[in-house]
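We emphasize that the prediction below concerns an isolated chain of 503 residues; any contacts that depend on oligomerization or on bound cofactors are therefore not represented. The input was used exactly as deposited, without trimming of termini.
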Amino acid sequence: MKGCNYQEERNYQMGRKMNRLTVLTISAIDTFLILGYLAGYLQGEISLGYMLLVEVLTIGTLTLNDVIFFKKKDSKKLKYISLIGYIFVYAVICLNSVNDMAFTVLFPMLVMYILYFDFKLVFYASLAFGTINIADVIYCVAILKHHHSGAAINSSTILLQAVSVIVFLVSMCLVTKLSNEHNGQQIDDITKEKEQNEQLLSDVIGVVKAVKINTNQAGDFISELVKNINVTASSLQDISAGNDSNANSIEEQRNMTESIQSMIKNTGELANQMKNLSAQSKDKVISGLDSVQRLNAQSQDVDAANKKIIQSVENLVDNAAKVNSITNQIFEISKQTNLLALNAAIESSRAGEAGKGFAVVANEVRQLADETRNLTENIQKIVGELQQNGKEAQNTVDDVVNSTKTEHELISMVNSQFTAIEHSMKGLDENVVEITKKIEEILHSNNSIVESITDISSVSEEVAASAQESTSIGEETKQKAERAIELMNELKDTVRAVDKYIK
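Result of the prediction step, given as a token string:
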């Protein structure tokens, strides 16, 4: 891409320079023509029409050339348009000039077109200019019968014009052709050499690219290596420092492990004691459970006895009620007997002496009725007290039954709790056995830890020695890596110098 841009820029500059030279040359020639023909008109040598024709053609072609050039300075159309315009101006000058040497105006103009190295352009221009000169000669000889200046036809002058123009035009064509061939050969040689140089440059650039890439990668690797070395050196120093701390920690761990081992042994003894206590507690729980079960059975017996007592008290209360009913009947009978005795006494007193004996009997019957009434009243009092005592006994027995029931419920709860305690004691006993096994395993593991700590202490000493040696090697490697970075940076600087040649 850079080569393509360079070639385009080079072609642009070359085209611009050639077009500028053409415009400047035409401008100079046209300026002389304009001034010359204006002076010729002012001196009366040429007519106004002829002067205006030449002026218009000259200024027109000059203006057109300038417009094309300033619009696009490397325009390829400029050489054709300027040549065509100049051919028209030249034809007018040759055929209408009063100067016999007007044909020489083509020499400086045509020489300028050789710079384009365009054989066809020079060839066709030569044909055009040659044709104009031939037409001019024919015009002077056949039509005017004299030269443009008015002089008589001079064969040497005609021959001079024809020969000089033909030789000049042929020479221009040959020079252009030979120049193009020579330039073509040189271009071929230059192209071949350029291709070889480009191939060589491409190979060199490829090598440089590879060197650049490898240099960058190597630089990155070395930088990363230095970083890793720094990290490794720092880590080794930390390891060395940490290893010293580890040595102290290992000694502390050894002492702590021995203390732990002693505590584990004490814990094992306590676990054995707890196992014995658990067994004793289990036996006591079983004994307590047996006692509670016997107490429960006894409570059931008491409950049955209470039920019998309640039945007996209820029977007592019923019998007392029956006795009270009988006593009431006896009391009524005694009241009636007393009334009968009173009536009998009244009747016996009416009977007089005949009724004295009956009165005595009636009195005795009344006394017996009174005593019976008194006894009945006493019996009623006793029966009332029995009923009262029976009710109190019944209430007391009810309280006893309720208490017994509550006691039975409490005994059942205690029995359930003892059963749960027995189940828990079984689990506790199993856990104690398991704990004893675990403590034995921990003791064994702790012994292994003590042995491992001893081994670690030995390895730690070896690590400390290796870390010290690795630190020394790492420092030396770091210095070499830093030197390698310096060399790599110098190589990078060298490679950067050819970056501008890399596409």
